[in-house]
Amino acid sequence: MSSSLPQVQPELYASLFAAKAQRLTDLLAPFQETAPSLDLFPSPVSHYRYRTEFRIWHEGDDLFYAMFEVGEDPKKDRRIVRMDSYPIASEAINALMPRLLAAIKDQPVLRHRLFQVEFLNTLSGEMLVTLIYHRQLDEAWEVAARALQQELQIEIIGRARKQKKVLVRDHVMERLHVAGRELIYQQIEGSFTQPNPAICQSMLEWALQVTQGSQERDLLELYCGNGNFTLALAGQFRRVLGTEISRTSVGAAQVNIAANQIDNVLVARASAEELAAALADPDSSLAARLAVADYDFSTVLVDPPRAGLDAATLAQVQGYERIVYISCNPHTLADNLAELTKTHRLERCAFFDQFPYTDHIEAGVYLVRR
Fold it and tell me: Pairing state of beta strands 114-121 and 78-82?
């Protein structure tokens, strides 16, 4: 649930987008020697989010979707907001929302102690719905859920404390179109995926542009998730090594490598810190397992969490000729750039409006060794 509920106002989008772009420009200005222009990637103005979740609110016989509006004091200032529709979410999610509640409302076995619903939709039209309960799910629930699944032509997962019932599968298969290619991605329920697929496609195409001409050398990617950038960039490099700490995401990446018939990518489960240690010690067991000595890395791509890169990873990243840094927090990006620009020159920067009508800024920068 969101603590701040963005309001879709298409007539204001251009000005809001420009204001965020200016904030990012100002934040990056101290690190730009030649003041490169900001590459701008606006979002669709509505129906851009393909993953969302709602609380389910019970009031007598009524049942409705809800989110919380949280004020300055989250413990005291917390207002429930009824959500009969959600213009931020995809059109398919909006179309399903009332149909799902109508089908559940008069079925006690599906309604009883239901407290949250999560939707995972794709551009390719797949829909996975997770129903989350404050009670254990039994055989009667499963029979009713299978009937609901058939009625609405969706796929359903049931969750409760220490319980997960997957009726068909626990994932969807997204198909993104990037620079004239279709890329297939397994997106697993409950795991991180980019919620705005239009902007995700823009991010991948921008990364392809800035890494052109890299075919004779290799790419190292940290925090690679399910292979979002890894697979898109594979054709730009001789070989790609991606690392990710989440076991679920690594498993999805392996599926995605096979689905896209890519043969020059290895994704391994390791933290950025573990990889840094392996690269520093070629005799370590992890270095041997990944065969890091066989790589000729020219470029590193990082897509870190909001905290940015720690000191050890920063030092490691500075060892490569080219750096692609995707950031979900421009303030920690700026902190990291204060160090990175001592050794590298900032050549390209981009603003990806992943979350319109909010203060959130997603950025990309491309640096080349001085």
Answer: unpaired
Establish whether 362 is a catalytic residue: yes
| φ and ψ at residue 120, rounded to 5 degrees | -130, 110
Let me know: does 91 contact 103? Beta carbons within 8 Å.
Answer: no
Closest CA to 219 of 291, 324, 290, 349: 324
- Looking at 126, 224, 244, 328, which residue is catalytic? 328
What is the CB-side half-sphere exposure of residue 156 using CA atoms within 13 A? 21
Angle between helices 91-105 and 139-152 (to 10 degrees): 130
Nearest to 205 by CA among 188, 183, 223, 221: 183
Residue 109's pLDDT is: 97
> How many Cα atoms sit within 13 Å of 61 on the Cβ side?
2
pLDDT tens, 73-110? 767 777 899 999 999 999 999 999 999 999 999 999 99
Q: How far are the Cα atoms of 61, 63, 134, 164 from residue 108, in angstroms, in the given order?
A: 11, 12, 14, 20
**What DSSP designation does 44 have?**
P
CA 22 – CA 98 distance, rounded (Å): 39
328 is catalytic: yes
Selecting among 155, 174, 189, 362, the annotated active-site residue is 362
Q: How does DSSP assign 172-198, residue by residue?
A: EEEEEEETTEEEEEEEETTS---S-HH
For the stretch 201-240, pLDDT in tens is: 999 999 999 999 767 899 999 999 999 999 999 999 999 9
Report d(CA 37, CA 18) in Å as an integer: 13
Token pair belonging to 6 = 């963005």
240-298 residue pLDDT tens: 999 999 999 999 999 999 999 999 999 999 988 888 888 888 889 999 999 999 999 99
Other CB atoms within a 10 A radius of the CB of residue 163 amount to 11
The model's pTM: 0.92
